[in-house]
Amino acid sequence: MRTALEARHLTKQYPGVLAVDDVSFAVPEGSCFGLLGPNGAGKTTTVEIIEGVATATSGEIYYFGELAGSRFRQEIGIQFQNTALQDFLSVRETLQMFQNLYNRRANLDRIIEDCSLGELLQRDNRKLSGGQRQRLLLAVALVNRPKLIFLDEPTTGLDPQARRNFWELIQGILADGATVILTTHYMDEAQVLCDEIAIMDVGKIILQGAPDTLLQERYQGLIIELPIADLSGDLAAIEHRVIDNLGVVEIVSDDIAASLKELSSHVTGLNRIKIRQPTLEDLFLDLTGHSLRA
Questions:
Q1: How does 87-125 read in b/e, with b if 16+ C-beta sit within 10 Å?
Q2: Can you give the pLDDT at residue 293?
Q3: Residue 174, pLDDT above cutoff 90
Q4: Is the confidence at residue 248, as pLDDT, over 60?
């Protein structure tokens, strides 16, 4: 499998702040790579450097083995988190306007069908719902038939159903062979879409790998979860790791039966106990000490 994108030793120095500190990674063609991190971690700056929106202090970007240049700019698509669409233009006019900026052009009818915009073509941009607007912005990112697509927080503000519909669109893009770089604040989104993730904090990549592999390496067992209000007595007697996370106790256990027996003398009620698989949210909290939404 070819490497679609490679970042080599990227740094970005602002006065008094090293925003990106020697970041390197490679993205295989046809895969979805997720870049995750809390606000201020450096992920947005890293992506902006790769996209060409910001200039690196040092480092290089390679696109299919060559330094990123004019070919790279013609063959990428970008869905920014916030994009101002022209007022008084229809959806169709918007797509045509953006497509005219490129030498490479996709089949507009197919994009319209894939992004479910057929019934919206005559609608003014100002009258689109949140989900409709995000579908249009994705379509705009596809008008040049890109081989590499950047999606920056693409489902922020969408309701759960709209988010899942958008995931299906992204999965369709990947199935067609495109490569996707995704930044997101939703751990479930990263777990569903990404073949590989890199978690950043204080300008560095602190962990990288396939989501399932990272979870298997980090956690040997399941998580018992219950409200701290349902516990009494000395929790120090519980041998497993205990976290007080916003009023909820989470106990990582590789022996659920033994852990429940151990908890029995400390629990006032059993009806609110949950047993679940570890998630990327757990991994992120363990690594950075705070929520991705912080």
A1: eeeebeebbeebbeebeeebebeebbebbebeebeeeeb
A2: 42
A3: yes
A4: yes
Tokens linked to 30: 């046809």
Question: What pLDDT sits at residue 292?
Answer: 45
Q: Using CA atoms, how far apart are residues 235 and 233, in angstroms rounded to an integer?
A: 6
Instruction: Please name the residue that has the structure tokens 């027996």.
Output: 261
Question: Is the distance from CB of 20 to CB of 49 less than 8 angstroms?
Answer: yes
Give CA separation, 54 vs 11, 20, 45, 142, in Å: 11, 12, 7, 22
pLDDT for residue 290 is more than 60: no
Q: Where are the alpha helices (DSSP H) in the chain?
A: 43-51, 70-75, 91-99, 108-114, 130-142, 160-175, 187-193, 211-218, 256-263, 280-288
**Whole-angstrom Cα distance, residue 32 to residue 190?**
9
Q: In angstroms, rounded to a whole number, what is the distance separating the alpha carbons of residues 263 and 18? A: 46
Whether the pLDDT of residue 294 is over 80: the answer is no
CB 189 within 8 A of CB 171: no
Longest dimension (CA), the chain: 70
Show Cβ contacts of residue 59 under 8 Å, excluding neighbours closer than 6 positions.
Answer: 7, 8, 9, 10, 11, 22, 23, 49
Instruction: Locate 273 and state its tokens.
Output: 């106990």
The 274-276 sheet, strands edge to edge: 242-245, 248-253, 222-227, 274-276
Q: Do 200 and 224 contact (CB within 8 A), yes or no?
A: no
Contact yes or no for 242/235 (Cβ under 8 A): yes
The CA-based angle 210-81-214, given to 5 degrees, is: 10
Q: Domains plus CATH for the chain? A: 3-210 (3.40.50.300), 220-277 (no CATH)
Using CA atoms, how far residue 32 sits from 57, 156, 179, 207, 228, in Å, is 27, 18, 6, 16, 38
3-state SS, residue 25: strand
